[in-house]
Structure formats: structure tokens, C-alpha cells
Predict the structure.
Amino acid sequence: MKFRYTLEALAIIAIIAFSGIFLYTSSTMSGAEFAGSDNVGSGLIAELSGIPLENFQPLIPQWEPPSGEIESCLFALQAAVGGAMVGGVFGFWIGSQKKA
Amino acid sequence: MHIMEGFLPLQWCIVWWIIALPCLLLGLYQLKKVLAADRETLPLLGVTGGFIFILSSLKLPSVTGSCSHPTGTGLSTISFGPWITSVVCAIVLLFQSLFLAHGGLSVLGANIVSMGIVGPLVGYAVYRMLRDTSVNVYLTVFLVTALADMFTYVTTSLELALAYPAETGGFVSSFVLFMGIFAVTQIPLAIVEGIVLALVFKYIVALKPDILIRLKIFSEEKINAARDDAS
């Protein structure tokens, strides 16, 4: 079966549908905070164990990004490292294919 | 999927570390062997590992009104197996626990088990089942990726439910509650991730089919058929 650009089309449709669902839920769902599921999970732990959330202290001392800005900077750095690896290798492959 | 630092009792931290460590050591040993045998595998490791870095930093909103991130472990699992994948995941998770306060050193073992071991193991099992059948390679990549992603979050739910059984209903009812938070949020993300990584695999097949054949990731016939289909 030939499907030249089917995967590209599917990926675009999936991403648009995903964004559409987000726009819909974020405008209709009241009380949706779009917090991390990690934090929602921690809330449930506090509820199940009956221990207040602020009583959970790190077992091993931990550095925390002082603000959301710094956190997003470090997350962007992580994605950039990944992007550089992916882009670098694809470029290398395309280059060596052209040479051969 | 991160369990936050301090949110897992000490005995469970130790249990998951004990499970994670041998897997990491096996992964390091395999990594050394694979790279020594064929230096050409290094770029493939770069691409498949790069996607773990990228995708695990993207926190996306989902239908449950909370955000979660894909894992990106599918390609690495297919190319190098679950153990080497767990080493790459350990690097990402270590970075996140040191600099981002996502996870932490005591819970790192538990987080490696969910994202780096159980998810990829489930994905690898699916890959081994489908590899020698007539199932299309892109569909295989989609299923492996989506299931590795889903089972990472199922494992996180399991780890938390084991540590915090509900007073009424015990382990099962708290597993259902955690699944409601982690796994349901993850379903749409896993589907999108599966499609995107299947697309990436198409580009790898187009550019470097020889390495996929040499590493016996898929048979020559399947790779050639996949090239034909998508070009």
C-alpha cells in the first residue's frame, strides 16, 4: 500500500485535534487549572494518607528553581539539548547520503 | 509521571532503587558493547535518545484539566531495547530532579522504574510480538510508543497505590484513583506521541535503512517494504 504523505497528514491532524480539544476543554471546563498531574497526584497522596500536603518534606534536600521563569528556562534547555542531538544526526545522515 | 521528592516513604524508595540499579548496570554494559561493536550506532542513539530529552520536557494539557508529558521512549526501545533506554531515561530524570525539582534523588529509583524500565519493557514485548508478523513497521512503532507511554503512567499509579492503600478498599481503590489522575490524562498524549514518533521513524527509514537492517531491528524485507510504502 502506497502512502506517501499519510504519516505527515496524520501527525498534523492529530496535533490540530489535540489543540482543538484543549481549546474546548479550557473554555468549557470550570475549575480546570491545568496544573501538572504530578501535583494533582501529590494532592491525592495527602488526601489518602491524611497527612497535610505541607508536612511532606524532601527526604534528600533538593534545590528548587526560584521561579517559574527559571524552571521554564531549564526545561527549554533540556528540549534544546534533545533538539540539537536530533537535528545534528539527521543533518549528518543527509550530508553523508549526498556525499555517497 | 514524576513522584515528587518526599512523597514516597523511605522503604518504598529503597525497594524501587533495588529494582532499578541492576537494570541500569545491565543497560550500561549493553551500551558499551553496542557502541564498541559498531560506531555507526552512535548517531542512532543520538536521535532516539534526543527524542526522550525533547518529549519529556513538553508538558501538555489534557482532557482532564491537568498537564502531563509524553515519555518519548518508543524509538529507543525498538532500536536498543529496554535496558539501554533506561540509562537514557536515568540521565533525563537525574537532570530533572537536580535542577527542576521534578522528582528527586530518593524517588529517582521509582521514577526510573516507571519511565525507563516498565514502560519500555511493555513496548519491547509488543515490538517482539509484531516484529516477525506482517504488521506494518509504522503501526508497530505507533503501538510500541503509545503503550510504553501509557504503561509508564500505569506504573506510577501502581507505585503510589502500593505505598498509599486507601483506608476503605485498600490497594485496589487507591490504584483506581491514581489511574484516574495519571493514566486518563495520558491517553490523548500517548496517541499523539505514537503518531509523531511513527513519522520520525519514517525519516530514519528513508535516511539510514542500512543501520536498521544491520542491527536486526526489522528484517530487510520489512524495511524495504516500509521505504517503498512511504516514498
Remarks:
- Residues 170-207 of chain B form the longest helix (38 residues).
- The helical segments of chain B are 10-37, 41-55, 74-99, 108-131, 137-163, 170-207, 209-214, 220-229.
- The domain at 10-229 of chain B is CATH 1.10.1760.20 (Arp2/3 complex 21 kDa subunit ARPC3).
- The beta strands of chain B are 60-61, 66-68.
